[in-house]
Every structure is written in structure tokens, then in C-alpha cells.
Amino acid sequence: MIPPESAVEVYDLKGLNCPLPVLKARKRLAGMRPGDRLWVETTDPLAVIDMPAFCQQEKHRLVETVSMPGGHRFLIERGEGKTEIPKA
Questions:
Q1: 1 within domain boundaries
Q2: Which of 16, 33, 52, 74 is exposed most, by the fewest CB atoms within 10 A?
Q3: pLDDT tens digit string along 24-62?
């Protein structure tokens, strides 16, 4: 297990429900360089489905998933592909 301290930062998305954790993670990762890592913490029960699907779709690497009290923590490595922010 990779400790959270070795990642660039921890992004606390606890208390937010689908689709906000994925949308906010997408926006944060868009501002990072390829290879940078980010821990995403969420209490959304659907995140265990949504985060892996998001990483696969956006060509990011899901390095690790950790269960924590009340939720999950995901270590995501920014991929080489261009992450676009959807326009509202």
C-alpha cells in the first residue's frame, strides 16, 4: 500500500454524491501534469464503480483503491491523454 503522504495531495470529496466526485476529480486532474498522482477521498457508495470507469475512460491509471471508514480512497495517476472539462 502506498501511503497518502507520497502523493501530490489528498482531494477530500467526502459528503458529495454522484456525479460530483468524478466531475471534481476530472477538473483537478486536468490541471495536473501527466504522471502526477492524486488521492481522492469520497463517501459516495457509487464511487467504487464510477472512479475506475472514469480512470479507464480518461486514460488515467487507478493505482490503488482503499476502503476507509464510511467511504473509499483512490490513488489516481494523471494519464498522458488530454482531460477535457465539459462545458456547461
A1: no
A2: 33
A3: 999 999 999 999 999 999 999 999 999 999 999 999 999
Per-residue model confidence (pLDDT) at position 66: 96
- Among 44, 5, 7, residue whose Cα is nearest residue 28: 7
CA dist., res. 47 & res. 5, Å (int): 22
Average pLDDT over residues 19-26: 97
The answer to whether residue 87 is domain-embedded is: no
Q: Which domain holds residue 72?
A: 7-77
- The domain tally of the chain equals 1
Q: Which residues pair with 41 in a beta bridge?
A: 12, 73
Residue 44 is assigned to a structural domain of this protein: yes
Predicted pLDDT of residue 78: 96
Per-residue pLDDT, averaged over 63-84, amounts to 89
Q: Which residues contact 9 (CB under 8 A, 6 or more apart)?
A: 38, 39
- In the sheet where 37-42 sits, what is the strand order? 9-12, 37-42, 71-77, 61-68
Just list the catalytic residues: 18
